[in-house]
Amino acid sequence: MLLTPLSRVKTTRPQLKSGRCYNEYRVPREHGGGTVRLRLPADAEDHANGFNREEHLLAFAAGDPDYDRIYGRRNDAESGNNTLDNSMLRERAHSVGRAGIRLNLITWAAYKNAQARALYAGRAGPAADQAA
After folding, report:
1. Phi-psi region of 125 (alpha: psi -120 to 50; beta: other; left: phi over 0)
2. What are the residues facing 8 on neighbouring strands?
3. Which of 25, 29, 98, 95 is nearest to 61 (CA)?
């Protein structure tokens, strides 16, 4: 399988809340040219094939002109969980057994909290160190 990045042309949003969102992508000439339109939410065929479209297809991929503007609006918990998932090879835990996995999650959360505190202190200056 050869994956080729495509340039997003536009995103269509539904007029009603019950509609579906679509992205249109430009296909390079060496791969046939033109545009391709992809529905973003999963459908019955995706579920039948075990494909989670929302998990594997980013509406705005890294490098897209709108990525930086929109990606920052993601829910912090989703972003944190995604970071943890991406740190695991093939989505497998770093350790074996419930106790080991729990220890990994606790130490990861402690690390993230320490990192957030250090970033806050760096932005707020000396007054933040005294307050903490």
Report:
1. left
2. 25
3. 25
Residue 87 has pLDDT above 80, yes or no: no
Element (H, E) at 120: helix 98-124
Alpha-carbon distance of 99 to 28, in angstroms, equals: 49
Tens digits of per-residue pLDDT, 94-113?
788 888 888 888 888 898 88
pTM given for the model: 0.39
Distances (CA, A) of 58 to 41, 42, 46, 50: 11, 12, 16, 17
- Report the helix count and the strand count for the chain, using DSSP H and E: 6, 3
Q: 């005294």: which residue's tokens?
A: 130
Distance of CA 94 to CAs 90, 100, 104, Å? 11, 8, 7
The answer to whether residues 42 and 53 touch, using CB atoms and an 8 Å cutoff, is: yes
Neighbours of 3 (CB within 10 A): 5
Answer whether 36's CB lies under 8 Å from 57's CB. no
